[in-house]
Amino acid sequence: MTSDMQAEATRSSQEHQLPRQRPAGISVAEDENSDVDLYRTAEEIEQERQEKHQSYTAFLVPDSEDQNSVAAPECLLTYSQREWKGNTSKSRLIKKGYEAIGEKFESLRRVRGDNYCALRATLFQILSQSQKLPSWLKDSEVLQWPEQMQSVEEFVDQWRFPPASKAGGRAVERLEGCLNLLRTRWQEAVQCVTPAERECVCQQVFVGQSEEYELLEALKFLMLKTAVQLHSDLEKGSQVPEFCWLLFARDTSKCPKSFLTNHLGHVGFSGGLEQVEMFLLGYSLQQTIQVYRLYKTDTEEFITYYPDDHKADWPYLSLVTEDDRHYNVPVPKQPSSKFDESGRPRWNIPSGGQTQERRVAHQ
Length: 363
Fold this sequence. Notes:
This protein is α+β, with helices and mostly antiparallel strands.
């Protein structure tokens, strides 16, 4: 449990308000007013701010030729140098963070900076790297509502669906359809044989259309179901993950209904996921979300795990954030062509035919 989470829970309890998520491409680097850049004039700084705003606005509102909500990979260090040109202490810290993760990752995919970005980045990593469909998603009971929800209709009747979602019908039926769609797309992804096939699946999903938003609502639906179960366990005195104590300690989310009304229902619209809710997301998906928090470079919270109690038995997903508001997707370095997938050296085939490895095996 991080100190940031404890401070966040206290702040939420006191202020009774939702955080506003800011687009990463323009807000973080500009949030340095307390640290003056001595190496550039005010005109140069303002020009960079305007260029960055125009560039990122174009990404937030794509034209008809580019509807992708997760951009193609670009060099991680090139991105860092372009976005953090200044010489302020924050710029140096963020660039140092990028250099640190550059030892493991070579590229970065920018994720559209709306209030869905944490969910979108997580879903992209699921579809791009999951090796198998989780057993809980195969279970037919995943569509069944928790018995603790005595009136399902009343509980989710006011669920807010984004305008891009085309599905109709009652909220309950629409949410069940969203979850079925998630299961279908996840299964398609894990059945892909090549990286190119995976990329094709992702390109079909992350285009800012109805299907993408229905999948994102499916993740929120899973978070609600998990919150209901965890709150019930908490009331019974059963053992629960540590983050539950903070999740339900807030005045605005003392029970699942208030959590939905005051927090989860606003995700994607007027607010993003708070840090404690990232724990709930990882727990709901049974995935360890490993986040590189660049503004925490050189601290023990540089890498944070959501949740942090299943690192040995749940798959890992990696995300990058500069401010705990916006999340991008890091792309791992490809293994050297000198080594195979298991890390063993590849042998050049000599003119005689068989590799040395095969000749030894036959002797």
